[in-house]
Structure formats: structure tokens, C-alpha cells
Amino acid sequence: MGFNSVPAMDAKKDSVAFACGKGNPECAGEGNPVPHDILTREAFENAIASVAATGGSTNAVLHLLAIAREAGIDLQIDDFQTVSERTPLLADLKPSGRFVAADMHRAGGVRLLARRLLHGKHLHPAAMTITGLSLKAESEERH
Known about the structure:
This protein is mostly helical. 54% of the residues lie in helices and 0% in strands. α3 runs antiparallel to α4 and α3 crosses α5. The longest helix has 15 residues, at 13-27.
């Protein structure tokens, strides 16, 4: 969580890219989550809420519908409206918003966004992430 939001020219980008590459073999190991474990209805609703909370892209609708279809998850276009209506706008990002993704990263990034959405009960906290941790656990501050 938070790796993809590091701005391209940030000094941490190289170490984040290295950590992502290092983690890939671990993700494929015995006992680790597989796509079927992660791509659940709850995970898709969390993704929709995250997109809505950031003033997200209409491309997310197309991509999430396509991924859900491939994963065998019943996700319909009306689900985007349902989830969006109950989700507050927390990060008013461009292209139609006032801020850019680098601003959100500096403010606390995806981890902060997830914590705020979880606090407001807008996400499913038990949904598993690629790390094998729940979304709630993954969103907690790391020291």
C-alpha cells in the first residue's frame, strides 16, 4: 500500500521499485494469497469507494468492470453509483479536482485515505490485500 503513489521524481522511488520487485517472488509462494483470494466483491466495492473518494477517473469504471468479469465477480455499472453515493470526496484530485496525486502522497497517501474511509465505515475492513493482511491491518501506520 502506497508504493504506486510515490511521485516519479521522489528520491524514494528507486527503493520502492526495488521493494516491489523483491516482494513479487514472495507473493507467489506457498500459502500466500492468490488473485481469487483478493478479488472479491468487497475488494471491488473498496476500489470503487477509493476512486470515488479521490474524484477518480472514469477509466476506473471500465477497468474494474473488466477485471470483475474476468474474476467471475458480479459487478454492474449501477454498483458504481450506489457505492459513490455513500462515499465522501476526501481528496479532490485532478483532472477535475484541485490537487494532484503527488499532493495526496505528501499528505499521507493511500494509507491515510484508507484509514479515513475505514474510520467512516466506507470500506470493508476484512478484505484481503496482496500482502495477506486485511485492508484494516495494511492501513495501519508502520514504524
